[in-house]
Amino acid sequence: MQALHLYLFLFRLFRKSSSKKNLNVGEVVNYVSNDTETIFDFFVDFTSLLVLPFQIVIYIYLLYQYLGISVISCILVLIILSPLNYYSSKKCQHYQEKQMELKAKRLTITSDIIKSIKLLKLYAWELPFLQKATKVRKEEMNTLRKMYFFDIILKVVWSSTHLLMACAAFATYILIDSSHVLEIKTIFVSLALFDILKNVFGLIPQVVMEFIQFNVSLRRVLKFLNSEELTPYVQQCVESTDDSVVILEHASFLWDKNEGYILKSLNLSIKKSSLVAIVGKVGAGKSSLLSAIIGEMHKSEGEDESVSEFENLKEGKEVKLINEEEYEVGEVKWSHYWIYLKSGSIKIFFSALILAILINVGSLGSTVYLSQWSKLHLSTANHIIIYVGIIVVIISLTAIAGFIAYFAAIKASKSIHEKLLKKVLKYPLTFFESHPLGRILNRFSRDIAGIDTNIPNFLLLALILLPYYPLIYGLIGATSLSFLFGVILIFIIYFLIARTYTWTSRQLQRLKSVTNSPVLNFISESYSGMSSIRAYGVRERFIQEANERIDLHFKCYYNQISLNRALECLMAIVGGIILFSVSVSLVYNKNLISASIIGLVLNYTIDAVISICWSIRVLSFLETNMVCMERIKEYMDFEEEAEWDLSIENI
Asked: How does it sit in the membrane (predicted)?
């Protein structure tokens, strides 16, 4: 679908005016590299968006079977939180639109710098242009920081919704009837359903952000696709009575239909093999006349005919210094993780990890407390106060962990981009002769986008998930020695699955990045040479070549989607076997283990089985997106020129 979308985009691009009045190279690269991918990713996960409301309704109905009318409090929690979620979503969309505009502006400046690098180095203008790009990047980071603020609010609210619902439901269940007692059966069946809702609500922030990004990207792309395009008016005249190859008869032309004429009532006839000079003062319309002849302007009246536009064009082989783009094989080196973490502050990321451990301990503690509810000789009010207190602490720690993790991520993004741009500007001209524009822009577009958005999101999730499974499987193993052997076996199975999936996904990500560079290079160079493409009448050939490059690129996407679906099917099978085995073992040892422990183990087993597939994908996505850091680091290791500012002693 994305390949078709890109093809249509290219087809329309070749029909735009070369005046480029409202479109620049940065915007074109942003459309192709970011917007179309965002649209594609949304449709891949679109089924999740459709299923989520039905899942919520079904699980609330099941809760009603055990908690009765108390589930109304769960619905009230959703209603109360809705305005905050809506407001945060709208603010995220606003800042997403602004960030995309700033990203396009930054890419335009970067593209201009790379294309004019010879001139910049001749006049020693690297530093002023570096400052210009850095200024726009600073604005982009400020916008991204604001967007992350509301994104964290969304994530915290939705990830805590199941806790607030559980707290409200249990409190209401006890308070509305003095005869209600939280029995083991009621507690753990309800908690199992709330844990399933946790995974459902955990997907909502991702789906909401994907929808926001999709909406922004779709509107941007549709604005381009629906914008004014050129109407072909050049008539190919194979034979001419007076041997003319260019004929204009009472022709009037303009760049924009909403503006006045640039050229009016022109009559021109140019004979074959004649030498014609167009002379005039600045702004008289000399370049416009040439553009009008090849079909670059809007024609309002008259005729424009030409014979075999630039028919003497002959194809030949160019001498190129361009090297094949290489990519790594195997695991992403730990040094790349270290560079990213160091750029954002090791201390801050470590603090977020400590908070994540406390969050998981608190979550486990809340469940253990509920399992011992009836054994603790406390009043109902004290029970509720303690449980609410635990929930408030968990939510507060989650918010703090999210904010400090994103603060470090913003710092890392800013530092990495600044170092990359400064390094590239210090490279000799031989670097730019052997590395095409699209390959360099790919680092500043898609790879930097991965650093800005993908890595922070998956890193935050990974920080929270890493302490979760050791705690859960440690709890399960501690209940019985036989369970401990089972936990080790489960760990080995999941490790083998995760290793195979991660290795394949990582290599596909590298291939996606490598095959994307030729696409961006082709788009940027084709757009810059649009006039020549039209003049030589080779538009269809260029569209065909672009289509071939795009097809090759999206074969990697197809394989990635197939791999994800295969993982989901495999994990569903393995998870079902594990859940069945644990259940049989618990029944077999029911006389040796208390009912509360059985409920606790079974509850967390269900939760682990449901979330393990997503956890493997998160850890894998973190590593595959760390390929962006790997590719950026590659462009930081070339030999540099001398310093821009040298003291007299060093000359």
From this structure: Multi-pass membrane protein
Q: Which of 81, 3, 622, 147 is nearest to 349 (CA)?
A: 622
Residue 485 makes CB contacts below 8 A (sequence gap 6+) with none
Long-range own/partner contacts, residues 586-594 (CB < 8 A, 24 or more apart): 589/480, 589/482, 592/480, 593/479, 593/480
Structural contact between residues 603 and 562, judged by C-beta atoms closer than 8 angstroms: no
Give per-residue pLDDT as tens, 494-540. 888 888 888 888 888 888 888 887 887 787 777 777 777 777 777 77
Give start and end residues of each alpha helix (H) in 426-480: 429-434, 437-442, 448-449, 455-465, 468-479
Tokens found for residue 226: 């629906």
Give the CA count within 13 Å in the CB-facing half-sphere of 380: 13
What are the strands, taking DSSP E only, across 521-613? none
Residue ranges making up the domain that contains 562: 2-229+332-638
Structure tokens at 508: 């596909």
Measured between alpha carbons, how far is 539 from 549 in angstroms, rounded to an integer? 16
> What's the pTM value of the predicted model, to 2 decimals?
0.75
Which H helix or E strand runs over 559?
Answer: helix 539-588
> Hunting for tokens 């082989």 — which residue is that?
317
- Domain at 301, CATH number: 3.40.50.300
For residues 443 and 634, what is the distance between their CA atoms, to the nearest angstrom? 10
Tokens encoding 133: 């790009």
- Residue the block writes with tokens 């596909």: 508
Is residue 608 domain-shared with residue 542, that is, in the same domain? yes
User: How do residues 131-164 score in pLDDT, each as one tens digit?
Assistant: 999 999 999 999 999 999 999 998 898 888 888 8
